């Protein structure tokens, strides 16, 4: 597989996971089972969907849209992200979503950070409380544009993408872990190797940003991967939902995505089935599936994603990611 195919696999994997999880986000595992049984394809959102009511099947959410935003800023900045520009773009993005009547707005950490920026605080201070998964969900373009084999440049780029909204040990470590998996995949590494790189990077990157209390990302990923490999198939869903957790906290949703990826690597779980499991598990399903899709896509390319569903997502969202993937790879080679 070529780097262009792997980069596209990451971006479209993110969008596919996002769209699969769109109708189930914020529902409990039991509610999803009662309404959908198990997600196996793209579904319409029901009228009482708390975040995306009545959205048509195949619609993407903030996960993909903000990842594209970060990617565009990277390209415009020739590999750098200006924190004030990121703040302005996020504000503009939310305004556009409000104008459309969408409830899919900025998450709690990002919202608080933007309010601090508007009140005159510096970008390094605005993100000091951000511990949720907002940075990790939009970090995929950094993994494509930055080579993990250049660790100082790689971490610098991750911090730039996180600083405004998630300038904390937890926010940066979780985003760096995801980006490292993607970057390793773009370098042609197999999934297991890439997950090892992501786990290691979580330990390295946790020294960036403001320290905050909470279970550390690196040890939790390492533990969850081992538990995933050893778990009885009948109990795997319980491990994800009841033990690791599926909330917006980075220590839960990002770690769950790693646990699912490990199941693919060590137990042969089909990659698309893994995305469907993420979309069916309850909680922050769209973000879990989006992060998982980006990591798996970077390590397996476009061939693993059903072409008919990719075509549907492209049509519903007028989504054309090839130019962005090309421009991000050009940054990697610069």
Automatic annotation (TrEMBL):
Cross-referenced InterPro entries: ADP-ribosylglycohydrolase, Ribosyl_crysJ1, Ribosyl_crysJ1_sf
Keywords, comma-separated and alphabetical: Hydrolase
Similarity section: Belongs to the ADP-ribosylglycohydrolase family.
Protein name (record): ADP-ribosylglycohydrolase family protein
């Amino acid at each position: 597989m070529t780097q262009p195919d792997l980069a596209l696999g990451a971006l479209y994997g993110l969008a596919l996971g996002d769209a699969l999880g769109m109708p189930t986000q914020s529902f409990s595992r039991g509610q999803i089972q009662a309404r959908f049984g198990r997600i196996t394809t793209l579904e319409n959102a029901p009228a009482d969907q708390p975040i995306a009511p009545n959205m048509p099947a195949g619609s993407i959410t903030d996960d993909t849209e903000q990842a594209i935003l970060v990617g565009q800023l990277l390209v415009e900045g020739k590999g750098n992200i200006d924190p004030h520009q990121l703040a302005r773009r996020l504000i503009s993005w939310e305004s556009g979503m409000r104008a459309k009547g969408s409830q899919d707005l900025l998450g709690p950490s990002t919202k608080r950070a933007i309010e601090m920026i508007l009140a005159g605080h510096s970008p390094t201070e605005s993100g000091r409380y951000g511990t949720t998964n907002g940075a990790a969900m939009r970090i995929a373009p950094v993994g494509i544009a930055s080579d993990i084999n250049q660790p100082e440049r790689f971490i610098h780029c991750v911090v730039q993408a996180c600083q405004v909204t998630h300038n904390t040990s937890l926010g940066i470590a979780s985003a760096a872990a995801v980006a490292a998996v993607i970057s390793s995949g773009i370098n042609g590494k197999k999934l297991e190797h890439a997950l090892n790189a992501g786990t290691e990077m979580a330990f390295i990157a946790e020294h960036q940003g403001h320290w905050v209390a909470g279970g550390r990302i690196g040890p939790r990923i390492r533990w969850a991967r081992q538990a995933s490999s050893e778990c009885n198939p009948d109990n795997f869903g319980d491990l994800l939902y009841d033990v690791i957790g599926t909330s917006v906290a980075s220590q839960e949703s990002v770690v769950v995505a790693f646990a699912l990826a490990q199941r693919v690597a060590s137990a042969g779980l089909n990659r698309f089935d893994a995305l469907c499991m993420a979309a069916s598990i309850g909680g922050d399903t769209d973000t879990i599936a989006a992060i998982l899709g980006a990591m798996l896509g970077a390590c397996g390319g476009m061939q693993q994603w059903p072409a008919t569903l990719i075509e549907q997502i492209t049509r519903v969202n007028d989504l054309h990611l090839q130019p962005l993937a090309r421009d991000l790879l050009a940054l990697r080679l610069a």
